């Protein structure tokens, strides 16, 4: 449940509520909004009665939270979360585009792509070092060598990095070079990994599992938040449906649904969502029009030679053209880019 404090509640009254919540065996989470402060009660609150908190001074009302996710919910925190990544603000008025290759393949490939996406206006460089491939016989990523190349590209080009952690043992190495830890679709319900990234202070890009509901996705975010890492952004990357014309079905609805349910930024991945480079621009533009806070797009200088996901990777020229179109859509919906 959440305790909504009166507009003029004093700091002392707020602290008394926090104290009472903790005495009752729960954790209290403060959300100081522009209008008023909300104290979230965290834990299994079934035995707790509304009256036990409603009687306290400065309390306006106590409301049960109907969703099983709490820290992720808009009820707990009505104001949107804005995550600062080296000065890049994700979740604010600006649409942030992250771009780069699916996987880091070589210094030349990475640097060429990094310069191209930076010039086109991307604010974060993506690149996989540890790749969750469907087949164990395909390219699995260059691992630590890829992270070192990402570190070099980040310094040379001046973009922060987002890269995937596949297991807890990757966290330390990826954190050394990347500002954002990507948690992949296939690991969305790896609860021990969610717990471990929740123990870090790094922003996390949490991809939606390809067969997961929006509620399950938010519950996974809750695992990270409940470990006190509040810098989580959600990434819709396409779900499994009966449709075979595209690799996955990009769930545009998820943007509006998630925006209603949560304060966390929503990023859209039109590359995996479609699986086809010539469909990426339409999906990306639809996402911005629908209210996404950012995009993550695969770009490769030679998609036909890519070691992973070449079919869905944009050439640098196509990416540049798309960015110009996205700017127009962003401005039409009152966002900057
Ligand atoms: C990726 O970003 O290259 C990737 C593997 O994504 P997902 O986890 O969404 O499949
Ligand atoms: Mn990929």
In short:
With 337 residues, this protein is α/β, with parallel strands linked by helices.
Describe, in plain words, how this protein is organized in 3D.
This protein is α/β, with parallel strands linked by helices. It folds into two domains: 2-63, Alpha-Beta Plaits, CATH 3.30.70.1140; 83-332, Aldolase class I (TIM Barrel, Alpha-Beta Barrel), CATH 3.20.20.70. Helix content is 34%, strand content 18%. The chain has helices at 11-23, 51-54, 107-120, 144-158, 171-177, 191-198, 214-226, 253-261, 270-274, 280-289, 316-332, and strands spanning 2-5, 27-32, 37-42, 59-63, 83-85, 88-90, 96-100, 124-126, 161-164, 180-183, 204-207, 232-236, 266-268, 294-298. The chain has an eight-stranded parallel beta barrel with strand order 7-8-9-10-11-12-13-14, surrounded by six helices. The chain has a four-stranded antiparallel sheet with strand order 2-3-1-4. A two-stranded antiparallel sheet has the order 5-6. Strand 8, helix 4 (144-158) and strand 9 form a beta-alpha-beta unit. Helix 3 packs parallel to helix 11, helix 6 (191-198) packs across helix 7 (214-226) and helix 10 runs parallel beside helix 11 (316-332). The protein binds phosphoenolpyruvate and manganese (II) ion (MN).
């Amino acid at each position: 449940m959440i305790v909504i404090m009166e507009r003029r509640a004093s700091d002392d009254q707020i602290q008394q509520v926090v104290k009472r919540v903790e005495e009752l065996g729960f954790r209290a989470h403060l959300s100081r909004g522009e209008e008023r402060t909300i104290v979230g009660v965290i834990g299994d609150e079934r035995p707790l009665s509304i009256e036990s908190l409603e009687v306290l001074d400065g309390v306006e009302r106590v409301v049960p939270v109907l969703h099983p996710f709490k820290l992720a919910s808009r009820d707990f925190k009505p104001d949107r979360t804005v995550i600062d990544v080296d000065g890049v603000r994700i979740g604010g008025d600006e649409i942030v585009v992250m771009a780069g290759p699916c996987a880091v393949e070589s210094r030349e490939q990475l640097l060429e792509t990094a310069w191209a996406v930076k010039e086109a206006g991307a604010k974060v460089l993506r690149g996989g070092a540890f790749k969750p491939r469907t087949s164990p016989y395909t390219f699995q990523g260059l691992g630590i060598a890829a992270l070192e190349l990402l570190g070099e590209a980040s310094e040379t080009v001046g973009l922060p990095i987002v890269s995937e952690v596949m297991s807890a043992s990757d966290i330390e190495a990826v954190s050394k070079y990347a500002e954002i830890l990507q948690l992949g679709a296939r690991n969305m319900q790896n609860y021990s990994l969610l717990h471990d990234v929740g123990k870090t202070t790094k922003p996390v890009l949490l991809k939606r599992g390809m067969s997961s509901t929006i509620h399950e996705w938010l519950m996974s975010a809750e695992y990270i938040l409940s470990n006190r890492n509040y810098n989580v952004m959600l990434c819709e990357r396409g779900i499994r449906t009966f449709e075979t014309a595209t690799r996955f079905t990009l769930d545009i609805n998820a943007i509006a649904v998630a925006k209603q349910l949560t304060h966390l930024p929503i990023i859209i991945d039109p590359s995996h969502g479609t699986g086809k480079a010539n469909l990426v621009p339409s999906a990306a533009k639809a996402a911005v029009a629908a209210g996404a806070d950012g995009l993550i797009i695969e770009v490769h200088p030679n998609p036909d030679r890519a070691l992973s996901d070449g079919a869905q990777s944009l050439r640098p020229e196509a990416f540049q053209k798309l960015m110009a179109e996205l700017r127009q859509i962003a401005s039409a919906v009152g966002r900057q880019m």
